[in-house]
């Protein structure tokens, strides 16, 4: 199987951020996410259990697992992997902010001690466990596949682990091609050089009637938004609110996303419905947007661009140059801004804020929203603190709903939409099972999260 993906990992070390949501192919975690959002044990013999006070979690390991170099899986290896996360220099230290200590209780038991109870801790235990002899260049795991070759900037080749405790995968060789440009991936698919890839909706549509190919759509927690700068024009709360009011999000979905997506004005993605506040929203209202700017002293200049104290209401909006979806979203945002007298220039060469970005975690809100919104302070920050410190599901839902109500009055960015992720797959295999996507796509998640279970037709 040959897969084309836009994103190439910087490293194959889980502690450097490889395969954040599990399904690492080369490595297994203590637990694994399922399509329903639940977890199942993988290297753990059962789901890890919390103490009564929530300040520790205990994981017991399987006794039938070995690494691809023949080494045995034991508690010392697991504890060593998580201790690396505790290093202040670790890329995942902020993700595991609540983790205090990790100890091997005995050969098959690991205990995690937390600084405070954290409701989503179990979701973090999908972290891949490498052997102690593993290196980023020569990764050694227990997973269904092994790395054969990695040519940075070009491709990666994986081969099936014959001794995998879950059974040798039927797809014995997987080549992952790194193709950043959307148009280039579409061409490779068109030319028969790929067996599967993710494409923007407009590009995926052309394959919907092609023989031997299937286009599948997956829901995602992939929120696309405009991040504002804390200086210049977009530092003004009135400008931020006015831009939010100016955006017609349904039109954005229809035009930029070819109808494949969900309009969204608040930061919580609809794939986590238990946390959505139905009574809060920012409606499209150009008249109100203009009134907000007028009241804040932004008056139309001779060319229609608003001015305040000699400063023009204009700025460049950065976006990724190879991403068709973000290019089209940037275009729609500039049109909305122009309608209220703000000149925005979409610029793929710009390197600073404001910029178009995406975020999202399909399993937990805290990991995505806390670093993004907490610096804003006020009621939004307070709500995030409550959500982070409680383990009661009802109280967490109340806190996240309060966050959305506060955000709706003083938005700190402009949330636009959540695209549906479109994939083109060759009909040579069975086993595809839809799962909720995160932001971005790679070979570890998306349709290929359970690749080891696929079989050839």
From TrEMBL:
<keyword id="KW-0732">Signal</keyword>
<dbReference type="InterPro" id="IPR039424">
    <property type="entry name" value="SBP_5"/>
</dbReference>
<dbReference type="GO" id="GO:1904680">
    <property type="term" value="F:peptide transmembrane transporter activity"/>
</dbReference>
<keyword id="KW-0813">Transport</keyword>
<protein>
    <submittedName>
        <fullName>Peptide/nickel transport system substrate-binding protein</fullName>
    </submittedName>
</protein>
<dbReference type="GO" id="GO:0042597">
    <property type="term" value="C:periplasmic space"/>
</dbReference>
<comment type="similarity">
    <text>Belongs to the bacterial solute-binding protein 5 family.</text>
</comment>
<feature type="domain" description="Solute-binding protein family 5">
    <location>
        <begin position="39"/>
        <end position="349"/>
    </location>
</feature>
<dbReference type="Pfam" id="PF00496">
    <property type="entry name" value="SBP_bac_5"/>
</dbReference>
<dbReference type="GO" id="GO:0043190">
    <property type="term" value="C:ATP-binding cassette (ABC) transporter complex"/>
</dbReference>
<dbReference type="GO" id="GO:0015833">
    <property type="term" value="P:peptide transport"/>
</dbReference>
<dbReference type="InterPro" id="IPR030678">
    <property type="entry name" value="Peptide/Ni-bd"/>
</dbReference>
<dbReference type="InterPro" id="IPR000914">
    <property type="entry name" value="SBP_5_dom"/>
</dbReference>
